[in-house]
Amino acid sequence: MPSDWAFVSIDMELTNRCSTGCLMCPREAITRPEGFMSENVFKAVTDKLVSEGSLITFSGMGDPLSHQKVFEWIYDIRRKDGDVGIVINPASLNRNISQRLVESSPNSITLSFPSLRKSVFEKLCPNVSYEDALKRTLELIDIARGNVGLRVTGIITDINSGEQEEYVSFWKERGVGSSMTVCHGRGGNLRLQEIYAPRSIGLESGICSLFQFHTFVTWEGEALACCHDLTGATRIGNLANDDVSVIAEMKRRALKNSMPFPVCGQCDEALRQCPVPQGLPPKGRKERSRFFRSVSQEEFVARS
């Protein structure tokens, strides 16, 4: 299991390109290079992470399903006894893609379905038909049932603040776990007054517990403070080239400052308030699962 807390959880960005155009994703602020992860970077990074016992999640600022190697790479990690999840949106699905995704056997699939209210959904995702998205989502649920763990997540904004109960009930009736998280400002990059008003979550303390056990890796192998760094200014190292011990040490140095990067001073993500990790990193999958349950997002949404 991980030699350092920094490698308990990894978000791996296969690409930072996406054509969905969701309002809560400030793509216009991305200034770091755009592209797709290469075979060499993938192998160098995942060899280290699988050896560490990290939970790898294909996520980030792009659409992982748009990467031509995504199914092959999920299977490759699982074949090596690694753990990998994926975060997707329904716009990229069709029956063939859903079938291939399930057959690649990720540990989990998280599907982003912002709102069950048609008018809200199509405002947040203007390039996606609500009816098509729902049809594709239900199709994936049917294919995944009994084969792969699937969870649906929504987002609470200023235009659907009372939706959570009906949202969870709808998906529960279809045998799927779900949750809604409060829209946050993506490190100060989201500036849409019609759906989001900045808050002060965790800013007084300056502490981000998430930074301690979670590392974000770009499609180039760059380790950044988090996915909300859209410029690459918080570079900690390059996991394709650097040993994990080098990245871990750089993160420890950064943690000596309560607000180590400018983007941290603008972040109002609720998870920055989660409990500070104590003791040694989880020794196995069961310990890791217990730890993740202790920092579940629903708990901190309720507090915010």
Please tag this protein with its features.
single chain; 304 residues; alpha/beta; nine-stranded mixed sheet; globular; disordered C terminus
Which secondary structure elements does this structure contain, and how are they paired or packed?
Layout: E1 9-12, H1 39-52, E2 55-58, H2 70-79, E3 83-88, H3 95-103, E4 108-112, H4 118-124, H5 130-144, E5 149-156, H6 164-173, E6 177-182, H7 210-213, E7 214-217, E8 222-224, E9 237-238, H8 244-254, H9 285-294, H10 297-303
Parallel strand pairs: 1-2, 1-7, 2-3, 3-4, 4-5, 5-6
Antiparallel strand pairs: 7-8, 8-9
What does the model show?
The protein starts with 8 loop residues before the first strand and ends with a helix. It has helices at 39-52, 70-79, 95-103, 118-124, 130-144, 164-173, 210-213, 244-254, 285-294, 297-303; strands spanning 9-12, 55-58, 83-88, 108-112, 149-156, 177-182, 214-217, 222-224, 237-238. Helix 3 (95-103) runs parallel beside helix 5. Helix 2 (70-79) links the parallel strand 2 (55-58) and strand 3. The longest helix has 15 residues, at 130-144. Residues 298-304 have low confidence and may be disordered. With 304 residues, it is an alpha/beta fold. The protein has a 9-stranded mixed beta sheet with strand order 6-5-4-3-2-1-7-8-9. The protein contains 10 helices and 9 strands.
